[in-house]
Each structure stands twice: as C-alpha cells, then as structure tokens.
Amino acid sequence: MTDKSTQPRVLIFDTTLRDGEQSPGATMTHEEKLEIAALLDEMGVDIIEAGFPIASEGDFAAVSEIARRAKNSTICGLARANFKDIDRCWEAVKHARSPRIHTFIGTSPLHRAIPNLDMDQMAERIHDTVSHARNLCDNVQWSPMDATRTEHDYLCRVVEIAIKAGATTINIPDTVGYTYPFESAKIIRMLLDRVPGADTITFATHCHNDLGMATANALAAVEAGARQIECTINGLGERAGNTALEEVVMAMKVRNDILPYRTGIDTTKIMHLSRRVSTVSGFPVQFNKAIVGKNAFLHESGIHQDGVLKNVETFEIMRPEDIGLTQKNIAMGKHSGRAALRAKLKELGYDLADNQLNDVFVRFKALADRKKEVYDDDILALVADEQTND
Ligand code: KIV
Ligand code: ZN
After folding, report:
1. Could you tell me the pTM of the whole model?
2. Over the stretch 110-158, which tens digit does the pLDDT of each residue have?
3. N or C: which end of the chain has fewer CB within 10 A?
4. Ligand 1 pocket: which of 14, 49, 143 to mutate (most atoms within 8 A of CB)
5. What one-character-per-residue DSSP string does 79-122 give?
6. Site residues for ligand 1, CB cut-off 6 Å
C-alpha cells in the first residue's frame, strides 16, 4: 500500500458559491450559502471562493459572514482589476482567520479589446492592482482570464509581472472550456520553464466544461506542475459548468498510482454536499453523472450483477461508502439475472427452493418488461403470489 501521507498536496479551491452560483438560475439565499460554506469547510476544502463582494450587498454580506465563521478553510473573494473592487473584497474577507483576495483581468486579444487597453497598458494595470491587493493582504491570487487563448509570450510576460507585484497564486483559467489536456499541461510547463520566480508561487488550474474536458484538463495541469485545482460541487457553473470537485478528488484517490498527490478532502462527505448543492441551486444531477449520479453505483445487467455479487471489484472501481453513499448497488429490472433475484430475495428474507425461484423469476421478467424498475414491494408481491398458488 502506498503511504499517501508523504505525497505532495494538491490544494482544492471550491468556487461553487462564486462561479457555480453564476449559472443562470442557480442563485442561493444567504442562509443556503452559509450552510454550503460550512459543509465545504468541514469536508476539508483548502480555499472557499465565497463570492464576488462588489457584485451586490447580498454577496458582500455572505462573503463577510462566511469569512467570520470559517474554521479551517481560507476564504477568498473575487475582484476585478480595479482598486474599488479590491478594497471591497478585502473589507469582506478580512474577517477570516485566513483571507485571500483573488483579482483577475482578461488577457486574450478578445478580452483586451473590452477595456480597450493595449498590451503595455494592461501590463501596467496588472502591476498596479496586484500590488494594491498585496498591500492589503499577504495571500493574493491573480488570474489572466481566458489564459488558454492568450498569446504565450504575453501570458509569460503578465504572469511574471503579477509574481513580481506580489501574487502568491497564479491561476490559469480555461474560461471558455477551449483547451485540450495536452495543451493544458503544456501551458503550465511553459510557465514553469520560462517565467522567472515561477517556482516561488503556486499555479492553479481553473477549467470550464464546454467540450466536456474540464476534469481531464485540470488533472493534466496537475501532472505538469499545477498544485491547486479550482472546481465546484456537481460541476455547477456557467454554461456547461466547471471542473467537478468530486471527479478530480476521486480520480486522484482511485488512480493514485498515475497521479500520486493527495488532497485534504474527506470524501465520505461528497454525497451529502452533492445533494445539498443540487437542492439549494435547483440544478438536478444527471442520473449518469460520474461519482454522484443516481446510477453511478447501480448495476442492472445480469452479467454485471452476477459479477458484483461474486466480487464487487469486477464492476466497481471505488466503493459507494467512499463518497458517503449507503444505497444498495443492485437495480432490479429486465436485464437482471437469476443470481441477482436470488440475492434480492435473501435480502428481503426469502430463501426459495429452486422450482419456486424459477416461477418467481419468470413472472419477475414479465413484470420487468412492463416496468422500468422493479421495486422491493413488487418482488414481495410476486413471492406472496407464488406462495398462494403453491
Ligand atoms: O473562468 C474564469 O476565467 C473565471 C475567472 C474569474 C477566474 O471564473
Ligand atoms: Zn470560471
């Protein structure tokens, strides 16, 4: 067994309450935000991005209160690249035991055109705003928004400026979910190779899921040297969402042989958080969502059911208990076989003789053809019928 306690740590930065809440329709109440933040803090999230304090009075109040209440996590607020945003952010996070200011500006050609800054003017703005944040707080994160569509030479230049101005974490956002795993890794490697001072700060990866690669892109960045993953519960986030916390954390746990890093996450709290975030955001989790979907640990086909009944590892790469799930892993339906029916009957307290089992199985199959899922009560009714007919 590998001794994981000596492995390097990858920090988990959760932005469910900021980037996640930015999904259209995912707005949470003040109380709901406090509840989610408390659960994230308890689960071992290293940094909670609690909101965007200048965005509204409500966001400011939530970030301030979360900062006051957090027991373990660093509390971070988001600020655009101007002094007013940064000051407001500091006013909210300063109550935390461990506060962080996260400031950002779009550095790609498309994003530079919006404030109408040329490359030199933007470089100066980055220097001034990061220095200002650093004068307020000794934990400053800086993000070149749309980094994956920023010219590489310019990206290296602005990252160097931000480090010199005092940023302690440099986050590389794939804002529009445009990158590929090998490109995500290449960018981190390039920054580590080319930027003076890159070895003195932490690189973070922040991926969106527009092409369905957010988890792969985040893990590739870690492989290349990033040591902070930005993610959300259930992958909640604008458009197709962000990297899902449960996916990167479980991927590093299950395939620790491939990516030998540890996180501080208590994975047994994942399922509860997933359900709470789904409820308070109003965003249902798709049935076949990796890790937390309703079907993620369910087996219906006869071959799979037979396999897991003999040795659970035949079709399960992780245990439901690892994420705090206690549900049974067998779904009874038309693909289920005799072995699964026998096991289900045993669980319900019946040990039928072979001929009775055969009869019940025939009727079970006929029922399963009509119904999507056959519940315990349906099976009990079939047994009662069988016993009456005997
Ligand atoms: O996706 C993004 O670029 C962001 C930044 C604000 C970090 O969320
Ligand atoms: Zn984002």
Report:
1. 0.91
2. 999 999 999 999 999 999 999 999 999 999 999 999 999 999 999 999 9
3. N
4. 143
5. EESSHHHHHHHHHHHTTSSSEEEEEEEE-SHHHHTTTT--HHHH
6. 19, 104, 143, 145, 171, 173, 175, 206, 208
Indicate whether 326 pLDDT > 90. no
CA distance 228 to 206: 9
* CA–CA separation, 167 and 49 (whole Å): 17
Cα within 13 Å of Cα(74), Cβ side: 19
CA dihedral of 198, 202, 203, 206, whole degrees rounded to 10: -160
Indicate the Cα dihedral angle 48, 50, 54, 55, nearest 10°: 130
**In DSSP terms, which residues pair with 82 in a beta bridge?**
none
Query: Which helix (H) or strand (E) element contains residue 135?
Result: helix 119-136
What number does the ligand 1 atom closest to the CA of 22 have? 8
Atom of ligand 1 nearest to the CA of 15: 8
* Mean pLDDT score across all residues of the chain: 95
- pLDDT class for 311, splitting at 50, 70, 90? confident
Q: Say if strands 74-80 and 99-106 run parallel, antiparallel, or are unpaired.
A: parallel
Rounded CA gap, 258 and 254, in Å? 9
